[in-house]
Amino acid sequence: AGGDVQGLGNYVTMARSTNNGLHWEKIYLIVEPPKNTRVFDPCLWYDKDSREIWLYWAQSYKSLWDGLGGVWGAKRKVSFFSRDKWSDPQRLTDGVMLNKPIRINKRTFFPVAYWDKLYESLKSPQKPDMVGVNIFIDTLSKVSRIGSIPIEKIVEESSEPQIVYLKNENLWAL
């Protein structure tokens, strides 16, 4: 939300229904950025192991894409009796994560894009070695990159990767 187009001042809102969508609270949560920051690409994910719901989003400073980005997240416990509030936002890594992570054997895998200079109006990447799709995994209180999938600039428009866990226990990145 915020503004007529994608850009500075965009923010994330969330509505909530407690009766299967018959009625909605107008605004349940707002992720409002600091001045000169764009907040975009929100994603909700429920972690069955910890019984927490996560809200992830991306941030860019002073432009549509600042050449660095940032994947951010906040969480809260989910239970009928829970009155827990959302945690403080935490910055997980550089880049953009539009699609949800996946959980495999009690480890969380994050599909994170790090964009090249997609259009003339956007900034060049600050970390060229990360350009493409990166796979991160949770390690204690942070995420660490375990691999990457380079994408040729000629076919990259704007990477929005997803990870799928196959029956043969391979990961498939789309």
How does this structure look, described?
With 174 residues, this protein is mainly beta. Helix content is 0%, strand content 44%. It has strands at residues 12-16, 25-31, 37-47, 52-61, 71-77, 90-93, 102-104, 107-114, 132-139, 142-149, 163-165, 171-173. The strands form four sheets. Strands 3-4-5-6 form a four-stranded antiparallel beta sheet, with no helix packed on it. Strands 7-8-9-10 form a four-stranded antiparallel beta sheet, with no helix packed on it. Strand 3 (37-47) and strand 4 (52-61) form a beta hairpin. The radius of gyration is 17 Å and the shape is globular. The two termini are 27 Å apart.
In short:
With 174 residues, this protein is an all-beta fold.
Record keyword descriptors for this entry.
four-stranded antiparallel β-sheet, 174 residues, mainly beta, single chain
**Alpha-carbon distance between the termini?**
27 Å
What's the tally of helices?
A: 0
Radius of gyration, taken over Cα atoms and rounded to an integer in Å:
17 Å
The overall pLDDT, averaged over residues, is: 84
Give me the secondary-structure category.
Answer: mainly beta
Strand content: 35-45%
Biggest sheet character: 4 strands, antiparallel
The run of helices and strands is EEEEEEEEEEEE
Low-confidence stretches are none
Dominant shape: globular
Please estimate the helix content: under 10%
Total strands: 12
Within the largest sheet, what's the order of strands? 3-4-5-6
Please describe the topology of this protein.
Blueprint: E1 12-16, E2 25-31, E3 37-47, E4 52-61, E5 71-77, E6 90-93, E7 102-104, E8 107-114, E9 132-139, E10 142-149, E11 163-165, E12 171-173
Antiparallel strand pairs: 1-2, 3-4, 4-5, 5-6, 7-8, 8-9, 9-10, 11-12
